[in-house]
Write a structure and sequence with these properties.
The chain is of the alpha/beta class. It has two domains: about 170 residues, Rossmann fold, CATH 3.40.50; about 70 residues, no CATH class. The chain is built from twelve helices and twelve strands. The chain has an eight-stranded mixed sheet with strand order 6-7-8-3-9-10-12-11, sandwiched between helices. The chain is globular and about 65 Å long. The structure holds iron/sulfur cluster. The site of iron/sulfur cluster has 13 residues, from loops. The site of iron/sulfur cluster (SF4) has 13 residues, from loops.
Length: about 325
């Protein structure tokens, strides 16, 4: 049976007013993250995936503005919450981790000091109880010798251990949703794999839902239950990871996968998608992928395609499938 959505984003728009004009960074983004799943949001730089992550926590930096749409968490719109309500949700029920853990951890305080402070900010516990909770989180994320880690400064840990500490800190208050923005990009390949295994364990053992933001289709294939492919600020294809990666429908998803190195294409040039990602200052009319698409039709230049269901849970936004809605 399909799990209920924990987070539901509908037609989200985020704009940045700059001296050069209005940049449309997120342009009608819609997807759900269900309870106990890892949902991958994948796309090239500039497709709006990180801004969407920040929007969920209402942390879009100035001069960005959420201009339309809704972000439902447990059915309640986060965009209608007061500042103090959002402060309680941020870090309490929804947590976020980033690519570079050393930039998120404070270098002048020990890991133990930082995590107990966060726990006591969100939960009514004593200092000793907070420490106990911290030590058990360290163990849960596979940090060796939790008591020693507690007294360690961030710079004394490797990148992989820092990211584990960051995940422990993020989930120490019992957050139900973890927004992980490129959490393995700055790490060595072997450490990347360990962090991905850890995320899957946290989903399985603790029931944490994870929105995994990445540019890496390999990471999606390894870890995600479902995936949404983003282009120019909206989803162009979405479904079970296997369906999207092995039975892809959208010409952009085709292009992304064809651009990956594969042993069967040894010695051949990688196939790049012609053209460039559109500039958010001047998005193309109609389908934003049309200037790069080899299947472009007249309708594509005029009308932006809606996401339509092609059966089961596979959705695609492309006029090639206008006749096949189920
Ligand atoms: Fe290509 Fe048209 Fe589909 Fe856009 S809508 S991906 S231009 S065929």
């Amino acid at each position: 049976m399909m799990a209920a959505p924990l987070l539901s984003i509908d037609k989200l728009h985020v704009q940045f007013r700059t001296y050069a004009g209005v940049v449309h960074a997120v342009n009608g983004m819609s997807f759900d993250v269900r309870k106990g799943e890892i949902f991958g949001l994948v796309g090239e730089s500039g497709c709006g995936k990180s801004v969407t992550g920040l929007a969920i926590l209402r942390m879009v930096p100035h001069p960005g503005q959420i201009s339309a749409g809704s972000i439902l968490f447990h059915g309640e719109d986060l965009l209608l919450k007061s500042k103090s309500e959002m402060q309680a949700i941020r870090g309490g029920r929804i947590a976020m981790i980033f690519q570079d853990p050393s930039a998120s951890l404070n270098p002048v305080f020990t890991i133990g000091n930082q995590i107990t402070r966060v726990i006591r900010q969100h939960l009514p516990v004593s200092r000793d109880e907070a420490k106990e909770r911290a030590l058990s989180m360290f163990a849960a994320v596979g940090l060796p010798d939790p008591e020693n880690i507690f007294h360690t400064y961030p710079h004394e840990l490797s990148g992989g251990l820092q990211q584990r500490a960051m995940i422990a800190l993020a989930l120490s208050t019992g957050a139900e949703l973890l927004v992980a923005d490129e959490p393995t990009t700055a790490l060595d390949v072997t450490i990347q794999a360990q962090i991905l295994v850890l995320l899957a364990e946290l989903r399985d053992k603790q029931g944490v839902s994870i929105l995994l933001i990445t540019h890496n289709l390999g990471v999606v294939a390894e870890t995600c239950d479902r995936v949404g492919v983003a282009y120019a600020g909206s989803i162009v294809e979405m479904g079970d990871t296997e369906d999207v990666l092995y039975h892809m429908k959208h010409p952009y998803t085709h292009g992304l996968l064809a651009a990956l190195p594969h042993p069967s294409r040894r010695g051949q040039l990688l196939q790049a998608i012609e053209g460039n990602v559109p500039n958010g200052l001047a998005l193309p009319s109609g389908c934003p992928f049309h200037p790069r698409c080899e299947h472009v039709m007249d309708v594509c230049r005029e009308k932006k395609p809606e996401l339509v269901c092609l059966g089961a849970e596979h959705l695609v936004a492309c006029h090639l499938y206008d006749e096949q809605r189920s």
